[in-house]
């Protein structure tokens, strides 16, 4: 009897320790996010004060959001730019990497492995070192200072990882499933669309999330390649907001911008995390 | 060019070859499979049996040669246009589709009307007793049920020929037996031409009308299960077919229909062609054809190494004086212990002689007669 009580007490202690550790780590991760959200709801004057306590003392206010909305061409212009750039990057990255990954995984062609290594090796080139050539190329193409140009740059940067991811995802699908579809009379495109796509969906979601996060948060290329203020994306706007007007920084506006920027990232990740985790572990176990 | 009735499609391979780069996998095979026949390809791993099946299916290109199905040259045709259906080792069901969708997929691709698809699906489900499973996903099925669905997917297409690529390999022993019987029943009911690849000899022996024994991309023998078992055309087939395998021991042809094994001379009662007195030969004896006998100068002396009791029978693993091992199926129920000396006799009719090169040596009276 005493032994049973001892073992259940030990189990309870182990549970408390396990969950306690999880809660502490969770709080550490959540703290900066909560901080930003709370500061964004302080009135502008209060937001400029020393940061403690983090929550609004004089009541919740959306003044910081109003200030941000009035900034430059208006927050919706910049949000629209960012959404357009991110959505286009996601769509283009997914489409190109889907076909490239399928090709690298399933087809035999000369120099296949060399080409794959070449594509993957481009991630070793520091992005900053090719900014000037990229700027010159986009200018030559008439795409400098256009959202289309910046989308092309983002897709190019995103492709090595995306193709690698999609090739792994296709490799994890048994070849016999595809063979069965061919015997059933499906064309190559139909095999890809009806059979393979649903099976590599976790990989597609992973590629989409990475492409979205990278393009939504990217700052340097947007800063260099976009010169017209109306075409700024949110990270560039945030830098402008942070640098302030007449030497003062509106910390409330900055934090409301941060909140606005992280909302879609969080929503996307929470919605798709199930697929995302499966995508990252694809091929790891049978 | 006429297409024969779907149930009786003849399949012909004419000088079919396959190479991957400089490596030859299939070396010019000629094979004719009669309509409605159940043919099993057997051979060791890497012998090219699955590659050959995939070539017939159209999933592998043919390097040279021609493949005819129902009188039509299908060598360059897509798999779906060859009139075949294939059942894979890993089932290869579409995991994101229900059983019904899996069965219907091929018919949808062929643009079959919806009512006809439903009729075919229900028909296949009835034959394979998978009606209650139609709305389930493959992940919710057991191995046996999945294989049934895979066979159902083949049936609904009403193919000219069924191709099976080791379909029972992933099933446990009990299920394998019941599925084997179901496949045999299916062949009897549908009457289609079937080609079945396996490395399981029981499957080959029980299912096949004819067995094709392959080695290194070449056909070693084609014949009925009885022919390849009882009348192997070479040492490879003799050693490959049968479990436990045929005993192969070194012997010397002593002339006048006699052979010498270790220190024993045995009379065969007939002369053999292509071999002279004093030539070394290989002697093949099935374990079940050896009898434990009384001491005799014409019996083989052997020493028991260990015995395996299998209930209905017992296998003795013995050493000959030459050091060669020999397996004996013992049916007299006597307990023999390790190290015990025994004498073995065999009906000379049951002995199979091979040259040292592996070719079958036949009786001088029957040499040159076709065996299969």
- The count of domains of chain B is 2
Top CATH class of the largest domain in chain B: Alpha Beta
Spatial order of the strands in the main sheet of chain B?
A: 6-7-8-3-9-10
Q: Please identify the structural class of chain A as seen in this structure.
A: mainly alpha
So what's the overall shape of chain B? elongated
Question: CATH superfamily of the largest domain in chain A, called what?
Answer: MetI-like
Question: Mind telling me the CATH superfamily name of the largest domain in chain B?
Answer: P-loop containing nucleotide triphosphate hydrolases
Model description:
The complex is a heterodimer of chains A (286) and B (372). Chain A is mostly helical and 286 residues long. Chain A contains 13 helices and no strands. In chain A, helix 1 packs across helix 13, helix 5 crosses helix 7 (147-171) and helix 8 (175-183) packs across helix 9. The longest helix of chain A is centred in the first third of the chain and has 39 residues, at 2-40. The radius of gyration of chain A is 24 Å and the shape is flat. Chain B has 372 residues and is an alpha+beta fold. Chain B folds into two domains: 6-235, P-loop containing nucleotide triphosphate hydrolases (Rossmann fold, 3-Layer(aba) Sandwich), CATH 3.40.50.300; 246-361, Nucleic acid-binding proteins (OB fold (Dihydrolipoamide Acetyltransferase, E2P)). Chain B has helices at 49-57, 99-109, 114-128, 143-155, 173-190, 201-207, 225-230, 235-240; strands spanning 11-20, 23-33, 38-42, 64-69, 72-73, 84-87, 161-165, 193-197, 210-215, 218-223, 247-255, 258-261, 264-267, 280-285, 290-293, 300-309, 314-319, 325-330, 341-346, 352-355, 360-361. In chain B, strands 6-7-8-3-9-10 form a six-stranded mixed β-sheet, sandwiched between helices. A six-stranded antiparallel β-sheet of chain B has the order 13-12-11-14-20-21. Chain B starts with 10 loop residues before the first strand and ends in an 11-residue tail after the last strand. The interface between A and B is medium-sized, with 16 and 25 residues.
């Amino acid at each position: 009897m005493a032994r049973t009580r001892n073992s259940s007490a030990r189990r309870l202690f182990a549970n408390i320790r396990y969950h306690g550790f999880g809660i502490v780590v969770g709080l550490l991760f959540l703290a900066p996010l909560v901080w930003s959200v709370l500061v964004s709801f302080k009135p502008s004057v209060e937001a400029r004060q020393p940061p403690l306590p983090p929550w609004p003392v004089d009541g919740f206010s959306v003044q910081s959001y109003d200030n941000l909305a009035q900034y430059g061409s208006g927050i919706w212009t910049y949000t629209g730019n960012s959404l357009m750039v991110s959505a286009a990057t996601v769509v283009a990255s997914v489409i190109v990497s889907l076909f490239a990954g399928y090709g690298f995984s399933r087809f035999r062609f000369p120099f296949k492995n060399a080409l794959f290594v070449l594509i993957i090796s481009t991630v070793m080139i520091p992005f900053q070192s090719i900014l000037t050539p990229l700027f010159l190329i986009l200018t030559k193409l008439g795409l400098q200072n256009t959202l289309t140009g910046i989308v092309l740059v983002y897709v190019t940067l995103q492709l090595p990882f995306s193709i690698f991811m999609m090739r792994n995802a296709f490799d994890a699908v048994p070849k016999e499933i595809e063979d069965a579809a061919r015997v059933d009379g499906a064309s190559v495109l139909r095999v890809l669309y009806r059979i393979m796509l649903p099976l590599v969906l976790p990989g597609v979601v992973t590629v989409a999330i990475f492409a979205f996060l990278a393009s939504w948060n990217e700052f340097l290329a947007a800063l260099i390649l976009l010169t017209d203020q109306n075409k700024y994306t949110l990270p560039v706007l945030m830098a402008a907001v942070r640098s302030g007007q007449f030497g003062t920084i509106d910390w409330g506006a900055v934090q409301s911008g941060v909140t606005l920027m992280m909302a879609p990232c969080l929503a996307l990740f929470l919605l798709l995390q199930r697929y995302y985790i499966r995508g990252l572990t694809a091929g790891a176990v049978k | 060019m006429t297409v024969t009735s779907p149930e009786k499609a003849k399949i012909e391979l004419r000088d079919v070859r396959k190479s991957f780069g400089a490596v030859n996998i299939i070396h010019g095979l000629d094979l004719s499979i009669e309509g409605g026949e159940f043919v099993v390809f057997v051979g060791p791993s890497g012998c090219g049996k699955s590659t050959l099946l995939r070539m017939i299916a159209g999933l592998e290109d043919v390097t040279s040669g021609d493949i005819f199905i129902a009188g039509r040259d299908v060598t360059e045709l897509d798999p779906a246009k060859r009139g075949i259906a294939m059942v894979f080792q890993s089932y290869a069901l579409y995991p994101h589709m229900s059983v019904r969708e899996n069965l219907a997929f091929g018919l949808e691709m062929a643009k079959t009307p919806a009512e006809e698809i439903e009729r075919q699906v229900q028909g296949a489900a009835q034959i394979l007793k998978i009606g209650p499973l139609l709305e389930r996903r493959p992940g919710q099925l057991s191995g046996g049920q999945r294989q049934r669905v895979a066979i159902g997917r083949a049936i609904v297409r009403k193919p000219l020929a069924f191709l099976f690529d080791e379909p029972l390999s992933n099933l446990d022993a009990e299920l394998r037996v019941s599925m084997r019987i179901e496949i045999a029943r299916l062949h009897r009911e549908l009457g289609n031409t079937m080609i079945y690849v396996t490395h399981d000899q029981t499957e080959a022996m029980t299912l096949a009308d004819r067995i094709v024994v392959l080695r290194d991309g070449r056909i070693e023998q084609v014949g009925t299960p009885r022919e390849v078992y009882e009348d192997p055309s070479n040492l490879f087939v003799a050693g490959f077919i049968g479990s436990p395998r045929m005993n192969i021991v070194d012997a010397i042809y002593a002339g006048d229909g006699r052979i010498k094994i270790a220190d024993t001379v045995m009379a065969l009662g007939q002369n053999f062609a292509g071999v002279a007195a004093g030539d070394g030969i290989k002697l093949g004896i099935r374990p079940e054809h050896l009898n434990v006998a009384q001491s005799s100068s014409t019996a083989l002396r052997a020493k028991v190494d260990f015995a395996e009791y299998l209930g209905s029978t017992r296998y003795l693993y013995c050493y000959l004086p030459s050091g060669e091992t020999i397996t004996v199926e013992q049916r007299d129920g006597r307990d023999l212990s390790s190290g015990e000396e025994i004498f073995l006799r065999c009906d000379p009719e049951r002995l199979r002689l091979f040259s040292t090169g592996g070719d079958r040596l036949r009786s001088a009276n029957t040499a040159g007669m076709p065996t299969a």
